[in-house]
Design a protein that fits this description.
heterodimer; A: about 130 residues; mainly beta; 2 domains; three-stranded antiparallel sheet; 8 strands; globular; B: Peroxisomal Thiolase, Chain A, domain 1; Peroxisomal Thiolase, Chain A, domain 1; three-stranded mixed sheet; Transcriptional regulator (chain A); NA-bd_OB-fold (chain A)
């Protein structure tokens, strides 16, 4: 079980909360307190819009432990409209095939169960085709 | 105290006028047609009480669905989540037995930490219980804004009549001062009795029907009693309402309740979603209301009556204001979610509802 890690990361995972650099205005995700662009201190919270597009993707058929009940599922690099690229599962594809350039939006979903049916439920961001 | 005296004092009216500041619906994208359930369990010969029902995806539960509905409600309300003083979620499918849904939803929408977060339980009217309490919190001036959610991923035993209808979905409402509201909630009326129509014991996976209590002694008695009391105490007649929404466990019950009370079919059509999404339990009356608000015009009057087994009904007298028009467009509509539809077969349904034993 990794309860402390899940607790520590909840803000960024539930709501795509990153940081904005007060020096160069770069939007940062995941939050790391130091701007990767200008090297300045960056601790100001920033709520990402959740909108972006698929930069690249793959489909998982042989999943790591904890994700095996969800196969097949798509994992994408999503380029957020504010700039950063995040790795996340795609969801709610229905009969749609993932494609590079697909407009997507962030939703908070159940990622997996920690350890087993007695462990905690882990929630976090995924992306789906834009609803409207 | 006489019964008549109790009745006359039964109206729940806030000290300061309150209303709905923002609302948001959620329905998952998967649909199980009733014909699929019939194909497996009756050889395809039986009818179905609904055309199809909504089914949550593998990664969805009451927490994730509540988060999305709450975000839609916040988008319409246009307030900072920090201004919420309550995040209350009514459901009979809270993902944890012990650990609140409310704290996770509050954290995800950015409302923590100065907020009351709690889970409500009253079978299918858990959502309107939270709604009534939110009216009280705002109406007493303890708070300016309170979020009430009714959401479910309902359980039905494989092969049981409920499997045709037990669905997933619901809606979120932000209650606030009437002068900011897109719809003013004038008053509520709650009618309950100890009625053993339907129950699920602790740690049981599926609920049980209490013999023949479901129809007349439970649903119809409580819905019509609450509705008639509301009409009586507010001096209103069915024709005074543009729309009416009744709890909808199937397609037939709410239509019969409307007819018994003197409402016409055109008054209930907009809020009658069970034929196409099934019974969303604690979400049912509230998502019926969200579908109505999506198309309502200033001046429209809406009667909402929920029902929860065990049993009780909450009735609400709602008047739409001129703020509705601009806020309708600020989030996806209920019909946007209903139109987003992927039909599945029974095998897929069994898998994504977790009914396959994998170990």
């Amino acid at each position: 079980m990794e309860i402390p890690r899940h607790w520590r990361l909840k803000k960024q995972r539930y709501g795509l909360v990153g940081e904005v650099c007060p020096h160069c205005d770069a939007k940062i995700f995941p939050p790391r307190d130091v701007c990767p662009h200008c090297g300045g201190e960056a601790k100001t919270a920033f709520n990402f819009s959740g909108r972006g597009e698929v930069y690249s993707y793959t489909v998982m058929h042989d999943a790591p432990a904890g994700f095996d009940q969800n196969t097949p599922y798509a994992v994408a690099l999503v380029k957020l409209e504010e700039g950063p690229v995040v790795t996340a599962q795609l969801t709610d594809l229905g009969e749609e095939q993932p494609r590079i350039g697909m407009p997507v939006e962030m939703v908070t979903r159940k990622i997996r169960e920690d350890a087993n049916e007695r462990g905690m439920l882990i929630y976090g961001y995924k992306f789906r085709p834009v609803l409207r | 105290m006489t019964e008549e005296h109790v009745h006359k004092n039964g109206l729940l009216k806030p000290n300061r006028p309150v209303g709905i500041i923002g609302y948001g619906a959620y329905v998952p994208r998967y649909r199980l047609p009733g014909a699929e359930v019939a194909r497996i369990w009756t050889g395809g010969t039986g009818g179905s009480p609904v055309k199809e029902k909504s089914v949550p995806g593998l990664d969805e539960d009451v927490i994730t669905m509540s988060i999305e509905a709450a975000r839609n409600a916040l988008a319409r309300a246009g307030i900072d989540p920090f201004e919420l003083r309550a995040v209350w979620v009514g459901s009979e499918s809270h993902p944890y037995a012990v650990k609140p849904t409310g704290t996770i939803v509050a954290e995800a929408i950015g409302a923590t930490p100065a907020v009351s977060a709690a889970d409500w339980e009253f079978a299918c009217k858990a959502g309107t219980e939270a709604f009534t309490a939110a009216m009280g919190l705002v109406g007493s001036k303890m708070a300016n804004y309170a979020l009430a959610i009714g959401m479910d991923t309902a359980q039905g035993r494989p092969g049981d009549a409920l499997e045709y209808t037990a669905a997933a979905g619901g809606a979120a409402y932000i209650l606030g001062p009437a002068e900011e509201a897109l719809a003013v909630v004038d008053s509520a009326y709650s009618y309950v009795s100890d009625t053993p129509d339907f129950f699920r014991r602790a740690e049981q996976k599926y609920p049980e029907h209490g013999q023949r209590f479901t129809g007349e002694p439970a649903y119809f008695t409580h819905i019509t009693s609450a509705a008639r009391a509301m009409l009586d105490l507010t001096g209103a007649a069915p024709e005074d309402f543009t729309f009416a929404v009744f709890h909808q466990p199937n397609a037939k019950f709410p239509q019969r309740a409307a007819s018994l009370l003197g409402f016409k079919p055109e008054q209930i059509t907009a809020g009658l979603l069970s034929p196409v999404i099934g019974n969303t339990y604690a979400g049912a009356a509230l998502i019926g209301l969200s579908a109505v608000l999506d198309i309502a015009k200033p001046g429209d009057r809406i009667l909402v009556v929920s029902f929860g087994s065990g049993a009780g009904s909450d009735a609400f007298d709602i008047r739409v204001t001129d703020k509705i028009t601009e806020r309708q467009k600020k989030a996806p509509t209920t019909q946007d979610y209903i139109a987003r539809r992927t039909p599945i077969d029974y095998g897929t349904y069994v898998r994504i509802r977790g009914n396959l034993a994998l170990k």
